[in-house]
Amino acid sequence: MSAAMDTESTYSGYSHYSGHSKKAHRQGRDRHKSPRSKDGSRSEKSVTIQTPPAEPLLGNDASRAEEGQDDNWGETTTAITGTSEHSISQEDIARISKDLEDSVGLDCKRYLGLTVAAVLGLLVFLTPIAFILLPQILWRDDLEPCGTVCEGLFISVAFKLLILLIGTWALFFRQPKADLPRVFVFRALLLVLIFLFVFSYWLFYGVRILDSKDTNYQGIVQYAVSLVDALLFIHYLAIVLLELRQLQPTFTVKVVRSTDGESRYYSLGHLSIQRAALVVLENYYRDFTVYNPALLTASKSRAAKHMAGLKVYNVDGPGNNASGQSRAMIAAAARRRDSSHNELYYEEADHERRVKKRRARLVVAVEEAFTHIKRLQAEEQQKAPGEMMDPREAAQAIFPSMARALQKYLRTTRQQQYHSMESILQHLSFCITNNMTPKAFLERYLNPGPTLQYDRDRWFSKQWTLVSEEAVTSGLQDGIVFVLKCLDFSLVVNVKKVPFIKLSEEFIDPKSHKFVLRLQSETSV
């Protein structure tokens, strides 16, 4: 009963958000009905549908939207959802249709490659069996009897085909991780090599065995065994080219996010540019903190406020050519009056003070809530098994006591767009189920985590664009720079080769460590 009352208080505490959300809907529709500005900046609708825009994400409209929104929980998500449903332009529709056509082309290319590889693999496994069975079917009466050695070769072929099947399944039958812009060169070369190899074997088999109806059945079986042996060697070559060649670190790449400058270093082996880009993206989602565009709006608003305070007058008249000198004088005067560094210093100090204060309040609120949970658990143990609360009900019971402190802290650190109330309740119930401490619960909110930690719909980019001056199928080289672009930002990758290290050995004679201690025979006594 208490859990139900607390849950009702939770929903009543957040009931005032609906009115703000409706207001945000109307503001979003009115804002997007207005025409675009002359400088080509885009509104938020191009962000919500997640298509690659021609302009940066954080334009003038985005900063105005950030300034116009209040601090209520979940309002940003509601406003963007309303915009994406009710506001869209013809240019956006054309871009969406183009992306759909590109995705259909990528799917066709992927399925075509899988179909060709599957057909070729089936041909490879059926060819040795066909070499052995065709003479038995076509001219069985004319064949020489198969002795003990011939029958032993049957067992050899069977086990080698089984080993080849398991190795092929482990190496090639994997879930694709990405759609690359170009084909994998080594994989394509292996497919061509296998096709030429099997074709040459079939050609020799048709000319020398089928046409002449060779009666030496043991020789035919040995011919099939030689084919399986060669296929096993090709599989070993595939392991070397596809797996072992890239293991030795040869290059060091520096990955820099273009918006906030966060960087990481990775070691890579001999890879093509497109496969190196794939490795960089896999490590990006794991190592980089989640991209938060709200952290960039503060500096932009500060710069806009400072520029708004400057007034420029054309003192020389519209027809005079001395405007360059007047601009230089105005810029020099503006630099003398510039005190933005002091504003930045006090602004950051005030922000740090507010973050520490609200963090302390949040820690205390969460610890009190978890103490209440322990008291509830002690009370529930005395009740009947059917009357015990599940973790979800317990999370709803203690959430109102920490909701306000958590909401203020997330607003101050600008993380409210990554944590919805439902996700917080799920995380809280997970911590209660596994008997985790308050510190373990707060770890997700006190420090921005990696990108994979958050909801897939909030961080996952549907499409990345690889920009490189070199061909994407060419290998990595020293000094190559390529860029990975997505909707909101880009990753700049700089490749450096690991330097050649020369080590020399210096021999130390063991006798050089010996010494003699000489004591004087005369003493003071």
Explain this structure to me?
Among the domains are: 109-246; 251-292 and 459-497. It has a five-stranded antiparallel beta sheet, covered by helices on one side. 60% of the residues lie in helices and 6% in strands. The chain has helices at residues 2-13, 16-33, 45-48, 60-68, 75-86, 90-138, 148-172, 185-210, 217-244, 273-287, 294-308, 323-336, 340-380, 391-412, 421-433, 438-446, 456-459, and strands at residues 251-257, 263-268, 465-468, 481-485, 490-497. A hairpin with a 5-residue loop joins strand 1 and strand 2. It is found in: Cell membrane. Residues 74-86 have a biased composition (Polar residues). It is a multi-pass membrane protein.
How would you summarize what this structure contains?
The protein has 525 residues and is mostly helical. It has helices at 2-13, 16-33, 45-48, 60-68, 75-86, 90-138, 148-172, 185-210, 217-244, 273-287, 294-308, 323-336, 340-380, 391-412, 421-433, 438-446, 456-459, and strands at residues 251-257, 263-268, 465-468, 481-485, 490-497. Helix content is 60%, strand content 6%.
- Percent range for β-strand residues: 5-15%
Overall shape: it is extended
Secondary structure tally: strands: 5
- Integer average pLDDT: 74
Low-confidence stretches: 1-94
Provide the succession of SSEs: HHHHHHHHHEEHHHHHHHHEEE
Instruction: Please report the number of helical segments.
Output: 17
The radius of gyration over CA amounts to 35 Å
User: How would you characterize the largest beta sheet?
Assistant: 5 strands, antiparallel
Question: Considering DSSP H and I runs of 4 or more, what fraction of the residues is helical?
Answer: 55-70%
